Amino acid sequence: MEILTKAAPRWLRQSEAGVVRHVVREFRYWHLFHDWFNASAPAIRPDVVLLPYLDYCLHAIGLLGSPFADCAWAGLAMRPSFHYSEMGVSAPRPGLADAKKWLFFRLLADPTLTRLLTIDEPLAAYLALHPHFEGRYAFLPEPVALEALLESATAKRALGLAPTRRIILVYGYLSLRKGVHELVAALRHTRFPLDVDVVCAGEMTDDVRRLLTTTGPNELIKAGRLKIIDRFVGSHEEALLFSAADIVWLGYRGHYNSSGVLAQAAQAGTPVLACADGVLGWQTKRHSLGLAVQPDDASAVGDAVRELMSQRVQVCSPPSAERPPVRVGGSVDLAVSILVDALAATRSRG
Q1: How crowded is residue 120: how many other Cβ atoms within 10 Å of its Cβ?
Q2: Is residue 316 a contact partner of residue 271, using CB atoms and an 8 Å limit?
Q3: Most buried among 68, 90, 139, 184, by the most CB within 10 A?
Q4: How far apart are CA 97 and CA 135, in angstroms?
Q5: Mean pLDDT of 38-45
């Protein structure tokens, strides 16, 4: 395997407005990949090309064909959304949805494509309804690699938390889109259980830091109801946090894709409180991973927390032979296997 790096030219970073910007960027990326391949292929002589983020130019490839001449290629698509309404995913209809659907199907028919991979479960379910695409795509579950989990009370003590308190975990790179403001508002609502605290863990944006210095959140921090870990979290501490959590918060705002945090919560056997919209809400309901609410409804959030706490033993009891763990994500080994199969499919093309 040979890895080549190339800085994006200045024109790729130029910005246009709205739909025009996205169309222009896609065609620019198509030409960038085309020019790179023509310049490098004679020396490298690749058997197959992998695009780990096909969304850079997915629709341009659908219109123009592969930028890699007759070389086999595979790609990972993360953000198509034309199928959401047909699959029952609550999300805004994307601009030019019919055109994007047509271009996506043209891409799938490209004779040099060995396999299209997607981490979007609704897209994989949608394509499964079209038998003529069988073998042209594969679902790649979000790879999850949590370290060994501990008993909840042990993990809480290791984190300096009281074992008798219930914990809601907000995890990852924390911006206001993660619903931090909405959860803090719910934490102060009369419907919110008084024995439940919130832990926000991960590097935070300046907007979130400013929010946490305001009067309401600051009072919660002083009272010990809101605990802040504003930094990168390593794998050992990550496992402690998911072990300690009684609920994982996924009440995101304006987020219509899935999330790696959902896959981590599923692996840990911890119920989630998710936004009702998007793939997060769709997967939460489809796999019974917790409850989905409108994050800005503080009363509904409080009621959902009470319900999840009362069902904690039944909903997310430890995995056993009788009750295997629910997995939205998959292991790293599974992801590697699916990727290798996609690349190896070039041999079957002849």
Answers
A1: 23
A2: yes
A3: 184
A4: 24
A5: 90
Tell me the C-alpha distance between 257 and 264, whole Å.
15
Indicate yes or no: pTM above 0.85: yes
Residue owning tokens 């991979």:
117
Tell me: the pLDDT tens digits for 163-173? 999 999 999 99
Give every strand in the sheet of 72-77, ordered side by side. Answer: 48-51, 72-77, 113-118, 137-139
Cβ atoms of 150 and 158 closer than 8 Å = yes
The secondary structure of 66-133, three-state, reads CCCCCCEEEEEECCCCCCCHHHCCCCCCCCCHHHHHHHHHHHHCCCCEEEEEECCHHHHHHHCCCHHH
Three-state SS letters, 54-67: HHHCHHHHHHHCCC
Query: Could you tell me which residues come within 8 angstroms of residue 139 by beta carbon, excluding any fewer than 6 positions away?
Result: 117, 118, 119, 121, 124
Size of the chain, expressed as the number of residues it contains? 350
Which amino acid makes up residue 32?
L
